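anyone seen this seq b4? input:
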Amino acid sequence: MTFLPEFMKISGKGGILDKMMHGLTQPFFTKHQEEECSVDLHDTRGVGIRIEKLNKFFGEKHVLEDIDLEILPGETFSIIGPSGTGKSVLLKHIVKLLSPDSGEVFIDNHPVFNPTDSEPPNYRYSMVFQSSALFNSLTVGENVGLWLREKRICKESVIRQIIREKLALVGLEGLEGLRTAELSGGMKKRVAIARSLAMNPDLILYDEPTAELDPINTDELANTIIKLKQSTNNTTVIVTHDLNFALYISDRIAMISGGRIEAIGTPAEIKASDNPVVRGFIYTTTKGIK
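predicted toks r here
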């Protein structure tokens, strides 16, 4: 895909990044020229998410059916299930990229789709897309600092420091000048994570982060996410069909199938589930679980 259509699709007016930026809370974009940064980018907190009776139709297809789910502040929560069962659709409702036909999503007890407060809730979120959504015409550093520069969040010297810090967190220290064409698939994923971390989100979401990665890069990505949790307090939500990845990194897991939540529990509880749908997904000859 050429640069211009990709840029318009993701960052242009009405594009995904544009919607995500409008989903961020207002204090993040307040300008105070006398300060190095207009917000404190060193302070994070985990947010709680509660989903109640969420329903979504695409035409006659009932994609999400009466979804009830609670994600605790600060936990790493994975949503697993076969392809085409509504996992990514559910994730996009959390960040308001899609609207439900009925039901509600609450973040820190604030309703997302039918807000009752005059002031927006004070949290920041970011999303790591399945495709990584990097811009080929920009360097690694320019990709990571994109939002900060577009919204003039910090002075240039501070932005460069943030870029260095976030790349170091994902194991890419000193690679600011590389072009995206010079990166492996695993490195692109880590650059996308660094870009999301640049705004120091309270909530970070991953849509199929292991897609198109080989086992070695998948393992590196899993360890990167685990190490990040040791240095931040944010809530992490991951959608994946990669069972072993989810079992390795998650505090809790929800299994979704046919648009319904089949089970919720710790990795050990999910592996021990008697639910036939869950067992059918877990105990297959290709997953190597005995």
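Residues 1-14, 16-34 have pLDDT under 50 and may be disordered. The longest helix spans residues 215-231. kinda curious what u guys think
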